[in-house]
Amino acid sequence: MASADPDGAAAATAADAGPHIFVFNGDADGLVGQHILFLELGRPVLRVTGLKREIGLLARLPRLTAGHIHGIDISLRRNLDALYPLLAQGNLRITWYDHHEPGEPPVHPSLVLHVNQAPETCTGAIVNAVRGHRHPLWAALAAFGDNLPATASALASAGGASAHEAQLLKRAGTLVNYNAYGEAPGDQLIPAPELAERMEPFVSALDFCWEASIFGPLAAQYEADQDAFQSLIALVDMPAAKAFVVPDAPFARRYAATWANERALQHPNEALAVLHAQADGGYRISLRSPRREGAVPAASDLAREFGGGGRKLAAGIDALPADRLDRFAERFGIYYGG
Ligand SMILES: [Mn+2]
After folding, report:
1. Domain assignment present for 227
2. What is the mean pLDDT of residues 117-134?
């Protein structure tokens, strides 16, 4: 890709013709992926993005007469229905950069795929590689945000970052990723479209890390959310089984998933249930089995007892009625704590 041969360069220039449209996940990886493309290609005519959980973004595009759509850090499989009619239009080119499961995309002359599902890569690193490895520190920030510290550290070293600078990239990646969580747009401190625009002045990822108007408020909110979780009282508090109720509040919608991930890493021998209070008085529950060696009861089997489902190590119950809370707490304690 970084080849200096003149034919290759000419082909790359033709392939880079715009106008460009960026469709990307609103987390650190998606934001960085589109920012590297911004640095390489210039400002897009349109950006389509959202919260981390919003994946089906291609369907949100308005009718386009011409252009080059870049899909960034969103599963192609979840966007295939919207992809076919876009390709059928005949006047659009589509390039996809991602590390999620792509399904079975069509082979089409207007569709170029840069999809790599290797567990150690992320979209920021893929875009950086496609564009000739010119933005390793941005890719490092993305990889830290996607919780790939080994990949991120390697990219930071490749970009000449010191250990301290790598820590700055890690903090920025963590905070930008955290900013993408939530259920409602108002849960976010900086909506992704705004954050993408506020990244535009920064050629250097390290300069971006020092942007106090972004990272000051974001760090303050992150720490306040962490503190709120510290003060939760366990509904079930047994040595091998802990259950917590979290309120239907912005701090919980933003931070519950990150908190549960960190807690599971710190306490691998404990089962964890997080009960999200719902507006109707019921609960949405996420369940994790302990990660210890040997036979562990399947989270999916317990979830099924309450109308849910999932996998052996992680499962969920979408809607537990309020009057079954005591029954769930009792079963959860027996299932994992006994
Ligand atoms: Mn990603």
Report:
1. no
2. 96
Q: Give 75 Cα–ligand 1 centroid separation in angstroms.
A: 10
Task: Based on DSSP, count helices (H) and strands (E) in the chain, helices before strands.
Answer: 13, 11
pLDDT on residue 265: 82
Cβ atoms of residues 268 and 258 within 8 Å: no
Q: How far is the CA of 34 from the centre of ligand 1 (A)?
A: 12
Q: CATH number, domain at 215?
A: 3.90.1640
| 97 Cα to the center of ligand 1, angstroms | 10
pLDDT score at 189: 96
Which neighbouring-strand residues pair with 95? 70, 112
Looking at the fold, whether 75 and 106 belong to one and the same domain comes out as yes
Q: What is the DSSP string of 108-122?
A: -TTEEEEE---TT--
Does 86 share its domain with 190? yes
**What's the rounded Cα separation, in Å, for the pair 311 and 297?**
11
Domain total in the chain? 2
